[in-house]
Amino acid sequence: MGSASSTSAAAGLPFAGVPEELREKAEELLATEPEHPELHVEFHAIDPDTRSFTLRTFLGPRKWAVALAALLVVVETVSLQLGPLLTGIAIDDGVRARDFGVVVGVFVAYLVAIGVNGLSGFTRIRFSGRLAEDLIYDLRIRVFSHLQRLSLSFFTDEKAGRLMTRMTSDIEALTLLFQDVLVQLAVQGLTLVTVAVILFILDPVLAAITLLLVVPVMSVATLWFRSASDKSYGAVRDRIALVLADLQESLAGIRVISAHNRRHHNIVNHRNVVGHYFDANDRVARIGAIYGPGTEAVGVIAQAVLILIGGRMVLRDELEVGELVSFVLFLTAFFAPIQQLVNLYNQYQAGQAAMAKLRDLFDTDPEVPDAPDAVELPLLDGQIEFRDVSFGYDPGELVLTDVDLRIEAGETFALVGPTGAGKSTVAKLVSRFYDPTSGEVLLDGHDLRSVTQRSLRRQLGVVPQEPFLFHGTIRDNVAFSDPDATDEVVLGACRAVGIDDLVDRLPLGLDTPTHERGSSLSSGERQLLALARAFLSRPRVLILDEATSNLDLLSEQRIEQALDVLLEGRTAIVIAHRLATAMRADRIAVIDDGGVVELGSHDELVAQGGRYAEMFATWQEHLR
Fold first, then answer.
1. What mean pLDDT do residues 515-544 have?
2. Is 46 left (phi over 0), alpha (psi -120 to 50) or beta?
3. How far apart are CA 416 and CA 589, in angstroms?
4. 232-268: b (≥16 Cβ within 10 Å) or e
5. Structural domains of the chain, with CATH
6. Which of 266-270, 332-336, 603-607 has the highest mean pLDDT?
7. What would the pLDDT profile of 301-320 be if each residue is shown by its tens digit?
């Protein structure tokens, strides 16, 4: 371990591994870790739970566990409210009657109530906490699965920061809602009902007077608070999404920001974004500042009125002193939950706003779904056909118009043309990242809309212009399509594309970390790893999207050699800006003006003297 770490440092790679002085402690810690069973994961292209995402539907599958938690809440609340009632009994039937036995009995009853309350509270907290964690676990998996299910167009239109908000702050708000807020709402709400019933049992007249003074004022204030806070919390959730989106974009583009000296401008912009979030939270605080002290003032006034009226009733022997004491204590217990409910309602609104955002996400359907009667695509020969295909990312503006094109099985087919002409769009339609606006895209005669995406992607390989490497090891990235591949198979894929010498030079070989986005590797090395990944997946159809456009000549030469191995025996669509790549293809199509304007081999197109011949002449001029 120590030698590997030192080798990593010498190679200029970030440190990876456990320091020698910590190894023994790390091994002791790992020895105490429990064994976890192997996970079995099923992924469905269509959401198996099509119900609208609401609190009721989300809690529905665990309704009996929720019912048990509610029962524990009832026991905890009732046992907690026995104190004032026992105090009144001790005063009237014990102290005033000079009966010490009653006082002792009340003391014992107090102890029993405290024990029942403590036990029920402990059980409720432990049980409801575990239930909340189970719910949040399921929710995180459901959100992540739904994001995996959505089409490419969704991620093109949506900011990454907003999506991160759904998985972070929104779920954190729901975590608080499930773990604490809903339970406390039940506790405090039940306390209000219980105390109100006891007040009427003690003295209906005092209870009616008290509630008539309090309920109308509190109802009006609560209705105002609910309306104002609903809007405010919706704004808070929107603004935090903008904060995270701006942060994510700034971190992802930090090199460009530094290169163009935009740091000051970005700080000003982020300050404005955070300022809008501050304003939304400040409005929430102002609303709470009005409602909280206002309801507290109502409670104090009600207590003063109660003492005035109740004291007069005691002086007239219409009410016992113990009953008045119990009544005052219960009235305090009546207003305390109201204050709690104010704070809880703020948190409840945050949870409801998060629920609304997640509901919008779950209500978003994939734009490229599997048909209900979709079939498995059989093993492909690799013939591709476009029949009268038109497509536009914006329905009102077509990129391709009435395209008819046929690519034979095993053929290497290059697409060239100006930027924005639709070359990558052709590749995206073959991959079925999008469906054509009209017409058909067929593989071996199968309309892509009639087969499952899983069976289609299993036989497609895509190498993008900017290869994406995941945080992990060389092995993890090469074997991405087949995690169970042996080291021999992975090394064979690396050898086939000529990157085995890189693996041999790395300190940990296939176990060398690539780090996020492959930051520890050069552009050429990342591209070769992407080609090795495609080779290992053994696709029948391969799509190369400008795979050599950002490379130096030496790296391009290595990748061209790797392509010779990779393309052998496969149908390949090569999108090329450099004509050196296009010239190696069996046929070339020039894409422009929404369609195929020229088609043929390199020699045929040069002989035609058209657009391709102009591009070739310009390219040769640059080589001189």
1. 80
2. beta
3. 6
4. bbbbbbbbbbbbbbbebbbeeeeeebeeeeeeeeeee
5. 55-362 (1.20.1560.10), 381-459+557-624 (3.40.50.300)
6. 603-607
7. 777 777 777 787 777 777 77
